[in-house]
Amino acid sequence: MVSLKDISARCGVSVATVSKALNGHKDVSEATRERLIRTAREMGYFPNAQARALKTNRTYNLGVMFLDEAGRGLTHEFFAKVLNSFKTEAELAGYDITFISNKDIGGRHMSTYEHCKYRSVDGIVIACTDFTTPDVFEVINGDIPVVTIDHIFDCRTAIVSNNESGMEKLLNYAVDCGHKKIAYIQGKKSAVAEKRLAGFYKACVSRGIEVRPEWLLVGDYCNPDNTYQLTKKLLKGRELPTCIFMPDDYAAIGGLNAIKDGGLSVPDDISVVGYDGIAFSQLLSPRLTTYTQDTPRIGSTAARKLISLIENPQTTFTEVITVDGQFLEGGSVKKL
Amino acid sequence: MVSLKDISARCGVSVATVSKALNGHKDVSEATRERLIRTAREMGYFPNAQARALKTNRTYNLGVMFLDEAGRGLTHEFFAKVLNSFKTEAELAGYDITFISNKDIGGRHMSTYEHCKYRSVDGIVIACTDFTTPDVFEVINGDIPVVTIDHIFDCRTAIVSNNESGMEKLLNYAVDCGHKKIAYIQGKKSAVAEKRLAGFYKACVSRGIEVRPEWLLVGDYCNPDNTYQLTKKLLKGRELPTCIFMPDDYAAIGGLNAIKDGGLSVPDDISVVGYDGIAFSQLLSPRLTTYTQDTPRIGSTAARKLISLIENPQTTFTEVITVDGQFLEGGSVKKL
DNA sequence: AGAAGTATCTCAAACGTTTCCGTTAATAAA
DNA sequence: TTTATTAACGGAAACGTTTGAGATACTTCT
User: Fold this and answer.
1) Which residues in chain B (37-56) have CB-CB distances under 8 A to chain A?
2) Sign of dihedral through CA atoms A37, A39, A40, A42?
3) Are B50 and A48 within 8 A, CB to CB?
4) Bond from prior residue into A134 cis (ω within 30 degrees of 0)
5) How far does the CA of residue B72 sit from the closest CA of chain A (Å)?
């Protein structure tokens, strides 16, 4: 690899001058700057990221902490999409992406935060299903810029999908379609689940819909089997709801199968509502009525905000940014 | 951050001794080694990855080059799963994962290979839908250890799914079920597509199945819309096949919808076969008959082999490792 | 006892940058 | 002409490691 020294030797100037020329410092003449830049290009020079990082304490590396308890990791379409756009946006600004987790290195266990320190990442984005782990707290309380996705911590910038109003929109639609007997299979306890539940309650109240305890089930996100069981349970009740809200689109498939196995059909006998707007949901027939999360915007906003926190620590301030999704009308809700 | 110097000061030995103690060199007494390791732990020491990399030219970072022309990136379940297990295996050995691509940095365009050099990754794993790009060639011809997935280059280690025998198994199954009139919607031209086609032909020949040109269509991987159109085309033909092989499970959904829209049902009127064994395929009803690629093994094998190439450049040799998948019987193929 | 070997540790250079400070020469101000 | 100012560049230390070559003391062999 060609280094600054090679360029300096070739051009008969000092290493310092080359460095300054390439980094746009003012104390180098236009003529030599141009010459140095040109030969740097000719010689195929690229700065050594390690050496630079060692001096500047800036790696231009962003740590991503994506953990879901189900262990689905990137298989989770929401995460995958967010990461995809996060990556694209970050790369535009010259940052690379490294996965961060807790692990063992050199026989010694390293927490996620220690891992970040070890790798000297400039910033961290956290998107987990569980934000209550010690690993998350350590990172939150550390001194590395952090952006969280779908969870709000004090004094940390957060990008959140508007789960509350998303759920409101879905419920309002169902009510508009004439549904009054509505069941809701929630996802597991989390900030997201709470927000959606809040939106559910709020809309029910405003539309005068009764929330029956036996129709309010706690299930799992992204767990079709679990949703299958819970849907079966609903179908065995003495009275059937006319519409079931599923934890998410993926889990909804389990619900749909339970309904089909029960000899009922969607949406004629029973209506179904999802959440997320994953690609598959629109390949089913009938297409799932759902709420599409704007994952590209969530990811790119997270990247931009994180980089802003890194590069302008004084002028930027922590904030909570809500990204709107979009209601997506499928055919899984019957108009009564 | 606490450095070697801090430990050396605290313990009254030289920095060199601390370094050697921590790295398990032989020329340091057991007593002092133990003492140094202990205080290092107490002080919360972690090596500075940049400094270490600068000296040793080893970053313990692995570059992943995951490109698909559809731009689905990690959304592609095959990639996501492979990456997941690759990452897990790599982390076990102390390696981290960085995404590598071509991009602009500091106003200058950087090829993927240059990007690798810039970041000094120790090794690269390539999994693309298109292996014929200049970016891939540059990496292949470079001097960084490389492992490719599902594509074979001379003198480079490759991990390949056994696409040929997988397809054979599927076709044999269909024939065993009594099918003779079989259509195949292929994926786009690629090593994978060729292997599967080869397996298709081979099995057809061995089982005495006629391959009709009008039933051999070239489509797209992971493109349900495209598959929908091509399936429609098949259904409009003067004679219907009794079984259709789809490019992959995801694309198969498009095919299933086309069949349903055509007023036919699966598997009663027409049978369908997928490929990949993605989660969704087993949530459909009927469950898709398909061939599950062993993504966990592909990913972990790729990681192990790559690390082996890095750490034992002399003893390891390039090889082609075939990872078997598994036939998965669903209900989408009718027994005639 | 002298030589040779071994165990343990230190010195110091090196990896490729960045950056503060100093130096020189040229220009502007007095 | 002298002094102050500025522009352009170089020297050198520093970031935190690793590592081969010495240095010292101790043991072992002949």
Assistant:
1) 41, 44, 46-51, 53-54
2) positive
3) no
4) no
5) 8
The tens digit of pLDDT for each residue in A154-178 reads 889 999 999 999 999 999 999 999 9
Which residues on A lie below 8 Å from B61 (Cβ)? Answer: 98
∠ at Cα B277 (B275, B283), nearest 5°?
A: 120
Q: What are phi and psi of A126, to 5 degrees?
A: -115, 125
pLDDT, tens only, A100-148? 988 776 566 889 999 999 999 999 999 987 888 999 999 999 999 999 9
Structure tokens, A114: 């220690």
Question: Taking a C-beta distance cutoff of 8 angstroms, is the pair A192, A248 a contact?
Answer: no
CA distances from B278 to A54, B9, B78, B248, B290 (A): 44, 56, 8, 9, 9
Query: What's the rounded Cα separation, in Å, for the pair B281 and B170?
Result: 15
B259 token code pair: 């069949």
- The C-alpha of A182 sits at a distance from chain B's nearest C-alpha, in angstroms, of 24
Q: Locate tokens 């995801």: which residue?
A: B250
Q: Average pLDDT for residues A231-253, to the nearest whole number?
A: 95
The percent helix, strand, coil of chain B (3-state, each to 5) is 45, 15, 40
C1’ D21 / CA A120, Å: 33
Output the CA–CA distances (angstroms, integers) from residue B257 to A172, B170, B181, in the order listed: 30, 21, 21
Question: Within 7 Å: CB of B320 and strand C?
Answer: no
Read off the tokens for A82.
């967010």
Nucleotide nearest to A27 (CA to C1'): D8
Q: Which of A118, A260, A279 sits opposite B49 (nearest CB)?
A: A118
CB contact under 8 Å between B50 and A120, yes or no, is yes
